[in-house]
Amino acid sequence: MLLTVLAQAQSQPLTFDFWTWLFQSINVLIIMLFLYKFLWQPIQSVMNKREQFVEDQLEHAKTSRAEAERLLEEYQARMREAQQEAEAVIKAATEKAEEAGQRIRREAEEEAERTLERARTEIAREREKALAAIRDEVTGLVVLAAGKLIGKTLTEEDHKHLVQQFVDQVAAADAGQTGTDGPQIGDGQ
Hints:
By secondary structure, the chain is an all-alpha fold. It has a domain at 51-174. The chain contains three helices and no strands. Helix 2 packs across helix 3. The N and C termini lie far apart (195 Å). Residues 177-189 have low confidence and may be disordered.
């Protein structure tokens, strides 16, 4: 049979055989269905999955980027707040240090003034004590000298009177007077 077909093919190069066409068409359809079922659908499924994966990754990247930008903004806001707080703390500490320095300086000046006033008071008290001691000693010497000059023993009344005159003269001299205004020792009474 093959030989007859070949012989016919050589004699008629463009002949149409319906059965050959039908079987070839069926074979092509079967091959197309087979390729569609076992090749195209799995490839299409893989392509769809890959496309979905890429879209999911892009969406995840957008979400991650938005989250990163939000976190960055939050971090920057916190850094600004921390910087402001640090500046406020430094400013407050500086002000407190200046206030403490001024308070310490003021207290030191007040303490120095109190110490100086106590020293002045102590000096005045010691001066008064020294003057009183000198007056007492001078009084004793005056009485002794007056007794020798007059040549007699003084009575208690005379003694008081002479001491009072001498003390008045010393006080006047101490106040810047010359001492010629008051009564003199040995003057008549």
